[in-house]
Design a protein that fits this description.
This protein is of the alpha/beta class. It is built from 13 helices and 13 strands. The chain has helices spanning about 20-30, 50-55, 70-80, 115-125, 130-145, 155-160, 200-220, 260, 280-285, 295-300, 315-330, 330-345, 355-365; strands spanning about 5-10, 35-40, 60, 85, 105-110, 145-150, 165-170, 190-195, 225-230, 250-255, 265-270, 290-295, 310. The strands form 2 sheets. It has a 7-stranded parallel beta sheet, sandwiched between helices. Helix 4 (about 115-125) runs antiparallel to helix 5 (about 130-145) and helix 7 (about 200-220) crosses helix 11. The mean pLDDT is about 90.
């Protein structure tokens, strides 16, 4: 089997965020027809369970601190890797002098960082962002790759315009299998929820914006409603003075089973104002039978139709109105929940699209 070296910021924890979920899934799929070696650039001592899970898939781990990592050329000579996959553009930078040692360089972009910052600069007018050098640096790194992987078609189009002769492949987020469980009906669900990695600025902004600007209007229509927040580092909101004594804001922290957690809520909200790539939280909510009200940013990368499979809004007043509308109307709730589930099961479930996804993955390498 040919050898693929995957370079990632750290050991992927698929339950902590969309990015690490992505790394984990790609490693597992590539390992079916390539000999995969994972080189995390940092090591965390509580990653043992994740390491063991990868090893069961015959994924080889090269640990930071191993003498070979300080002699990267020696590592290449020893294992004779044919291909290198860099997760996120910035992981490539320390290895710029070694790229010629591989037959093919692949960069999984995850998101176009400069596009995220473009949106952020428009939303947060008081935050000065020097976009030109950031964009130039990111594109310079992409120029070194033979193949670029994106999560969304929109980002593939953007990169194809800049690099018309480069291989650019869109591989959206997938779910390996759908967990079978009993979906709670409309009448047995209550409250609204948001889920995200709270060390990311996109999630911090979305939650703050929702609580301060949208949630008060939602409560006018549904006075007893509560907003639940979950995800890694979500407990930081407990320390924000203006939220500390709020009984209508519930911080649930990190959850082990996302689908079972979201199964109890009536509406999932995704009021993200900036970001790039595809948001796994949308997929998590839909497969949990929890219909979604989202912004355009949250919808990127999904073929979900406003009014049929999802509710879309980019203004706070309208967003609040759509949350209330979905929360109170059982027939509409049932239709959107069921339509969205059918759509993602058709397009985003790996088992239903195995040949399609395998073809895309092989195309990135061969």
């Amino acid at each position: 089997m040919k050898k693929l070296l995957v370079i990632s910021p750290k050991i992927p924890r698929p339950d902590s965020g969309a990015g690490e979920y992505r790394v984990d899934q790609l490693c597992r799929k590539y390992s079916k027809w390539l000999n995969v070696f994972l080189l995390p650039l940092q090591f965390e001592w509580d990653s043992v369970n994740y390491i063991n899970s990868l090893k069961k898939e015959n994924i080889n781990l090269i640990f930071p601190g191993h003498k070979g990592i300080y002699d990267f050329q020696g590592l290449i000579n020893k294992y004779k890797f044919e291909y290198a996959l860099f997760e996120w553009f910035y992981t490539l930078m320390p290895f710029n002098n070694y790229l010629s040692c591989f037959k093919k360089i692949i960069v999984d972009t995850h998101e176009l960082y400069y596009k995220k910052l473009e949106k952020k600069s428009k939303v947060l007018a008081n935050e000065r962002i020097e976009l030109a050098p950031i964009r130039s640096n990111e594109l310079e790194i992409y120029s070194k790759a033979d193949t670029l992987i994106t999560l969304t078609r929109e980002e593939s189009v953007e990169l194809a315009r800049i690099f018309p002769n480069k291989k650019i492949i869109t591989i959206p987020i997938w779910m390996d299998k759908h967990k079978e469980f009993e979906y709670l009906p409309f009448k047995n669900r209550r409250d609204i929820a948001y889920l995200g990695l709270m060390s990311r600025d996109v999630n911090l902004d979305a939650v703050g914006y929702f609580i301060d600007e949208i949630f008060p209007m939602v409560k006018i229509g549904v006075p007893d409603i509560k907003f639940h927040l979950a995800g890694v580092n979500s407990s930081i909101f407990k320390n924000i003075e203006k939220y500390k004594k709020r009984k209508d804001i519930v911080i649930d922290g990190e959850v082990e089973d996302i689908c079972s957690y979201l199964n109890k809520f009536r509406v999932f909200v995704c009021p993200m104002r900036f970001g790039a790539g595809q948001k796994k939280k949308i997929l998590d909510a839909v497969v949990s039978g929890c219909p979604v009200v989202t912004s355009s940013v949250g919808l990127e990368g999904y073929s979900l139709t406003d009014g049929k499979e999802i509710l879309l809004s980019d203004t706070k007043k309208d967003f609040a109105a759509k949350v209330i509308y979905l929360y109170k109307n059982e027939n509409i709730w049932n239709n959107i929940s069921q339509n969205a589930l059918k759509k993602v099961m058709k397009l985003n479930l790996y088992n239903n699209n195995e040949m399609y996804y395998e073809k895309l993955l092989k195309k990135t390498v061969f």
